[in-house]
From TrEMBL:
Keywords, comma-separated and alphabetical: Hydrolase
Name of the protein: N-formylglutamate amidohydrolase
Keyword Ribonucleoprotein in annotation: no
Xref: InterPro entries: N-FG_amidohydro (IPR007709), UCP029730 (IPR011227)
Amino acid sequence: MPDTAYTAIAGDPATGLLIVSDHASAHVPADLSLGVADGVMRRHVAIDIGVAPLAALLCEALGCPAVLGGVSRLVIDLNREEDAAGLIPETSDGDVVPGNAGLDATARAARIDRFWRPYHAHLAVRIAADRPVLLVSLHSFTPRLATAPDPRPWAVGVLYNRDDRAARLAIPLLDAAGVVTGDNLPYSGQVLNATMNTHAEGNGIAYLGLEVRQDLIGDDAGVAEWAAILAPVIATVRDRLR
């Protein structure tokens, strides 16, 4: 594996599924200093809380593989285009990241070459080899942003950009399961969908963008509960796309 750009969970490509989680880790390599407090690294600005164990349980239930981002989104945001302003964030939801301030072009390029390129290169190779029927983009969201404190009441958001094939199948299934579901909420995949734009829409592959509210998957019991809810939804969407 190149440095800490990603980790992989083994699974059977014949399932037709690949789970992708850009923000699964809060890891910061020892040679990088972000200059933020430990408490910040446990918040949503640094990691999608709960998605790593949720991805593991979903892979176990579905028999499928996964690729998980290997560094904190404060090191580099793997769900951004290479030239995006927020790729290496200097602030996030009110938290300042001093170690990212004023990076020159050389330092920025080095960060991209070390983490962003290997992650997306691995995804590209994996998807070309396995040709999954469905990519599952797995994220979590905070119930309330510090900088926009309106409550976010949805348990799960389903995000999409131009290709809404999987979303249109999944939303009624989640509704039927009693899940309070956001249709392109708490934010729109038409605004923020970089990984799926490249690897799913760019390859004509259907994708299911799932955002689970982080307080629901903040412990083992919550992760187990939501894996049990989401696994059959994912499987049904996959089967209907085949």
